[in-house]
Amino acid sequence: MGMAMAAVMGARLELREVAVDYGGVPAVAGVTLAIEPGRTLALVGPSGSGKSSVAQCPNRLIDLVAGARVRGTVRVDGRDVRDPGVDVIELRRQVGMLFQRPVVFPTTIARNLDLPLREHRLGDAATRRARAEQALRAVGLWEEVASRLERPAAALSGGQQQRLCLARALLLEPAVLLLDEPCSSLDPLAAAVVEEALQQLRGKVTMLLVTHSLAQAGRLADDVALLWPTERGGRLVELQPAAEFLARPRTPLAKAFVAGAAAG
Amino acid sequence: MRELAMGRRAMERAVAAVAWAGTLLVVAAFGALLGELLVRGAGELSWRYLVEAPRDAGRSGGVGGIVVATGVLVALALAGAVPLALLAALFLDEAGAAQAGRARRRLAAALRRVLDVVGSVPSIVFGLFGNALFCRAFGWGESLLAGGATLACMMVPLLTIAFDEALQRAPAAERAAAAACAFSRAATLRHVVLPHAWPLLLAGAVLAVARALAETAALLFTSGYVDRMPTSLLDSARSLSVHVWDLALNVAGGEARACSAALLLLLLVVAIEAAARGALAWLRRRAGR
Fold first, then answer.
1. pTM above 0.90?
2. Which of A38, A131, A148, A186 could share a disulfide with A191, CB 3.0–4.6 Å?
3. How far apart are CA B63 and CA B242, in angstroms?
């Protein structure tokens, strides 16, 4: 990747008995899983199984959702993220996130990348420009935007915006990257380019990928976890290495899910 | 079936006709007002009218000191009201966040109700309040300072309501993206909330300025109606709206001059609105949107 990020191998992400409810309505029921540093885990499952809720726990973005309540333990590099002593800003520097729809800030392409660096006082203007260029190159966007960095970010295509968001997330050199269906709002070509950028990050950062696409899980993830919706919220029904999960699912629900995906 | 379709078309035509008639009525009313002001007042408007002092109770001369007093009153009111309203709107915005406690949310709801009520209090009540507090209790007498402070009190609820709405303009997704980029609340406000809020913030400020420019009752009790050029903030002075009121009702033969002053007031509001639009366009260009 060429960035300082190449040296980062990610952090261990661990969820123990994590349950989430929104104003008493359960969304996730007692999920336990761990992702070793540098590995990628794909969280799959039907709609309403609580995948996105789980993905919002490690960086405590779920705190922004009205009525959300989280129980259980989420640890990043061994530290409980809900410990009162945790600085949420520092936590979110360590745990980056990419959303389902690309969300660029209402400003230029250059400023979208400069703002996070400036807010965290990461280098002078020249250093920040160099880091922004590295991040854009890392996601394969530099050649496309180098001549129009001062143009509005909102004028980019959906796929370019999503790669810009990925570059923005990488600038802070996160140890963990949360990917909440990052390609689901993109056309197949744009999705392939974003996926290629994510492929380049494998082994260099710990990734939790929420996806509806088993094929994508197979391409990007080392492990696959299947969540299933129940009356008490989404439950983890199977966790296996990706190849095993796709070839030989063990539980009836996983078999049905894989068969359904294959048929669909 | 066919009769039903014809009936529906007739109803649509009737609704469109009523809408057009209503619009024309409003345009005609405003046109008549503007025409009256132009016919009776435009002849007096000149550079000299703007800089000269009024003579013969305003029947001749200009509105030099009155324009200055109006500008000072509005500037004082804005300087007092904008920071207070912005702080109150920020409090309301923060209280609306998911992390805010129940007590804070209740306080915010109560504050919104109070603002709605205070915002609809007649201006003459503010005048009496301003006279009692600023003129007498603070010892400022009838002065620009007392008038500006009273206008600020009138503006705060209106501005807070407008600013509160403006701050809620930022999409939740962008706030979440800012949080995911490890932005502090202050950084989120600067880089995400304010760029979306500027149009409504400016619109709110322009409305408040227009209301301050048009205010008469409250100023009669607080800044007085001396038509000399003010030399200090503690001088009594006359605003343009008070001048219009005085010429129209108290000065025999002052109607034409009242129309001139009213036309000038109208032009000032249009100029301020145009300046706000220009500022907004500049902000948008700067933000790259």
1. no
2. A186
3. 12
Q: What is the C-alpha end-to-end distance of chain A, expressed in Å?
A: 35
Question: Is any Cβ of chain B less than 8 angstroms from the Cβ of A167?
Answer: no
What ipTM does this complex have? 0.88
For position A54, which CATH number holds?
3.40.50.300
The residue range of the domain holding A206 is 4-263
Q: Give the contacts of B56 (CB within 8 A, at least 6 positions apart).
A: none
Q: Is the Cβ pair A59, B180 closer than 8 Å? A: yes
What's the total number of domains in chain A?
1
Chosen for mutation from B99, B104, B181, B184 (greatest number of chain A CBs closer than 10 Å) is B181
Enumerate residues 75 to 114 of chain A having a beta carbon within 8 A of any beta carbon in chain B: 89-93, 96-97, 99, 101, 103-108, 111
H or E element at residue A28: strand A25-35
Which residues fall within 8 angstroms of residue B63, CB to CB, at 6 or more apart?
A: B49, B50, B52, B54, B240, B243, B261, B264
pLDDT in tens, chain B (289 residues): 778 888 899 999 999 999 999 999 999 999 998 898 888 888 888 999 999 999 998 899 999 999 999 999 999 999 999 999 999 999 998 887 766 777 888 888 899 999 999 999 999 999 999 999 999 999 999 999 999 999 999 999 999 999 999 998 888 899 999 999 999 988 999 889 988 898 889 989 998 999 899 899 999 999 998 999 999 999 999 999 999 999 999 999 999 999 999 999 999 999 998 998 888 888 777 665 5
DSSP per-residue string spanning A132-172:
HHHHHHHTT-HHHHGGGTTSBGGGS-HHHHHHHHHHHHHHT
Asked if A154 has any chain B CB less than 8 Å from its own CB, the reply is yes
Q: Which residues contact B142 (CB under 8 A, 6 or more apart)?
A: B131, B135, B221, B222, B223, B224, B236
CA distance A39 to A222: 6
B-chain residues near A120 (CB < 8 A): 182
Measured between alpha carbons, how far is B233 from B72 in angstroms, rounded to an integer?
8
